Amino acid sequence: xxxxxxxxxxxxxxxPKTALAALFLAMLGGMAGAAEDRFTLRVPDGLAFADIxxxxxxxxxxxxxxxxxxxxxxxxxxxxxxYRDGVPGNGNKFPDGSKIVKIEWSQKKSAESPYxxxxxxxxxSVSFIEKDSKKFPDTSGWAYAQFVYDAASDTFRPxxxxxxxxxxxxxxxxxxxxxxxxxxxx
Length: 186
What we know:
Helix content: 10-25%
CATH class: Alpha Beta
Distance between the termini: 34 Å
Radius of gyration: 16 Å
Shape: globular
């Protein structure tokens, strides 16, 4: 299983909806207490979950819908500042220290909403990418990780090995500094 499969990215539809992003962020607050041991996890020969400590408060970049799921893509302050400065573009790349997280849930129709809206249901996974050109020169400075969530045990487990696990997939967006998700107009 790759961090973010090519099939996943082809099926992704970006839908930058502020209300949906706000709902996702509200759900993250409830996730904060879940699986407290997650910060001790590490992808074999790769990144640690602790590398994204505080991701629950990162700013949204975009939301996407994939087959059977919804994703919130959020980034740390370093990456958000780069996006706002127009990265990627004009040959500019994200600076070292940039981190982006993708949180995926299964989806269901809202029982409360008076109109049709799909909302997150069960947490499925947390995937992330971190840029450090010195530590990861063989993957254009990026390292990748994915942790799958098991609701029954309220735990995460690594689903890949190595920091380069998602690089091959991301080479198709090399011109965008290996990042699929654009920062849509707000």
